[in-house]
């Protein structure tokens, strides 16, 4: 429902309008002078302002001009009991959104106008919500980080997004290069146009060419219809080309030509088509080294890297590990409906000290695994992978694999309990869920096994 301000020096009309529209569910305020209405407009944002033109002192047109300065988005309707051509012209010139006459149809006119404006407001709010959701899922809100290196990335995204310049994003696998590319697109003037991705390393040369540039019917065996390429599909938007460093020399030449001329020629066609596409490329390779060794064209590199961006590895921004961990933990906890409220200090210390060669993607997978395996209310050291947790993987049948003591120490009693639970789970898996067999594998009585299983909620 709308927030409406009625302005009229006739108190009886204000009272009637207030009662009528409050009954219809709207929030209503009234003012009996332009000066009082100005004070309200300075302290509140109204959806609709309905004002009489003829007021003592300043007029409704004066209030309209003031309202358009302080709240240009509000819908402003002027009323008059003395309709003349001059007042209508003055209302239109001042920017009134609507103009009604105070006669026997006044209430019906106001109802129709308020209903129409309210419906438009609802649609705008829903559209705004959807846009915010899209930006949350694909824009800056989906890149988690508060370290100085990530703040620099956010600032650079905001700076380069409004431009149409090509961007080359470098960084290790799993650092979130595609998320950065999406954020650039979603914060650009091209946000309403397509954002299309392609992994250049996932296609052989001939297939990559047809994917990028399209083909005509009969261009090759199996080409049974004309097909638009990704450059044409992304027209007006953004094409994200991942693993650009894996592109063959021949394809590099063809891509360079498209970037230089802004035209594509589908396979089997003699005609070229203009394309307006912002290309954002990404690679985990050192292109300087690739150029020096003759595997990547220097001219293409300069075409792609108008604006270079480097996404830091996770070990370069360890300050973000707790934040990312909490984000993934909350996401997977909800998805799996687990009563997990947090992570133990020992487990968090291991996460922060681990080097994460797989970067954010590896951390995400680790937390997903931990949430799936954890039976308590807190992520413990024992549900982390051995490479992360810093312990030896339990092996049935004995062995000399001692559990090392981490440099930062550990909770001995808790570690013992976690070790017991890991062995119980491993024995159950090996025994196919048969408890008597699991007890035999652990060389304990069935009664003892039941005791430990109950103790560890297995």
Keywords:
Helicase, Ruva Protein, domain 3, Rossmann fold, single chain, 458 residues, 4 domains, 5-stranded parallel β-sheet, 16 strands, alpha/beta
Set out the fold topology:
Layout: E1 3-7, H1 11-23, E2 27-31, H2 34-43, E3 48-52, H3 60-70, E4 75-80, H4 85-94, E5 98-101, H5 106-138, H6 148-160, E6 167-170, H7 177-186, E7 195-199, H8 205-213, E8 214-215, E9 227-228, H9 230-233, E10 238-242, H10 249-261, E11 263-264, E12 273-274, E13 278-283, H11 287-292, H12 298-304, E14 307-310, H13 321-336, E15 342-343, H14 345-353, H15 359-373, E16 378-379, H16 386-389, H17 412-430, H18 435-441, H19 446-455
Parallel strand pairs: 1-2, 1-3, 3-4, 4-5, 6-13, 6-14, 7-10, 10-13, 15-16
Antiparallel strand pairs: 8-9, 11-12
Helix pairs in contact: 2-3, 10-12, 13-15, 17-18, 18-19
A few lines on this structure:
The chain has helices at 11-23, 34-43, 60-70, 85-94, 106-138, 148-160, 177-186, 205-213, 230-233, 249-261, 287-292, 298-304, 321-336, 345-353, 359-373, 386-389, 412-430, 435-441, 446-455; strands at residues 3-7, 27-31, 48-52, 75-80, 98-101, 167-170, 195-199, 214-215, 227-228, 238-242, 263-264, 273-274, 278-283, 307-310, 342-343, 378-379. The protein is α/β, with parallel strands linked by helices. Mean pLDDT is 86; it is low at 392-402.
């Amino acid at each position: 429902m709308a927030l409406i301000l009625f302005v009229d020096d006739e108190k009886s009309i204000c009272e009637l309008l207030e009662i009528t529209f409050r009954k219809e569910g709207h929030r209503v305020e009234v003012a009996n002078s332009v000066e009082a209405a100005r004070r309200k407009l300075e302290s509140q944002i109204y959806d609709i302002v309905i004002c009489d033109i003829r007021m003592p002192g300043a007029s409704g047109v004066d209030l309209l001009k003031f309202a358009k300065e302080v709240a240009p988005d509000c819908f402003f309707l002027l009323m008059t009991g003395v309709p003349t051509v001059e007042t209508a012209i003055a209302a239109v010139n001042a920017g009134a959104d609507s103009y009604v006459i105070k006669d026997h149809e006044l209430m019906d006119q106001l109802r129709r106008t308020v209903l129409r404006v309210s419906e438009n407001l609802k649609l705008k709010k829903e559209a705004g919500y959807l846009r915010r959701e899209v930006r949350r899922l694909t824009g800056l809100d989906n890149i988690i980080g508060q370290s100085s290196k990530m703040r620099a990335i956010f600032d650079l995204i905001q700076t380069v997004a409004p431009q149409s310049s090509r961007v080359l994003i470098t960084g290790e696998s799993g650092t979130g290069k595609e998320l950065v590319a999406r954020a650039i697109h979603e914060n650009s003037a091209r946000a309403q146009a397509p954002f299309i991705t392609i992994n250049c390393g996932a296609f052989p040369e001939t297939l990559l060419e047809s994917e990028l540039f399209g083909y005509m019917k009969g261009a090759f065996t199996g080409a049974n219809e004309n097909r638009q390429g990704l450059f044409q599909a992304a027209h007006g938007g953004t094409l994200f080309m991942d693993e650009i460093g894996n592109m063959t020399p021949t394809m590099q030449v063809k891509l360079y030509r498209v970037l230089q001329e802004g035209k594509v020629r589908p396979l089997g066609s003699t005609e070229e088509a203009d394309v307006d596409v912002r290309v954002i490329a990404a690679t985990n390779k050192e292109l300087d080294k690739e150029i020096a060794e003759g595997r990547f064209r220097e001219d293409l590199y300069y075409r792609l890297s108008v604006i270079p961006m480097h996404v830091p590895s996770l070990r370069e921004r360890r300050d973000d590990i707790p934040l990312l961990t909490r984000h993934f933990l909350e996401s997977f906890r909800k998805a799996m409906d687990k009563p997990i409220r947090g992570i133990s200090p020992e487990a968090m210390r291991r996460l922060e000290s681990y080097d994460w060669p797989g970067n954010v993607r590896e951390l995400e997978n680790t937390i997903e695994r931990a949430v799936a395996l954890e039976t308590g209310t807190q992520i413990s050291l024992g549900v982390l992978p051995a490479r992360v947790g810093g312990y030896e993987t339990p092996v049935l049948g004995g062995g000399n694999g001692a559990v090392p003591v981490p440099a930062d120490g550990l909770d001995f009693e808790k570690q013992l309990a976690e070790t017991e639970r890991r062995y119980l789970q491993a024995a159950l898996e090996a025994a196919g869920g048969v408890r008597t067999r699991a007890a035999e594998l652990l060389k304990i009585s069935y009664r003892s096994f039941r005791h430990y299983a109950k103790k560890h909620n297995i």
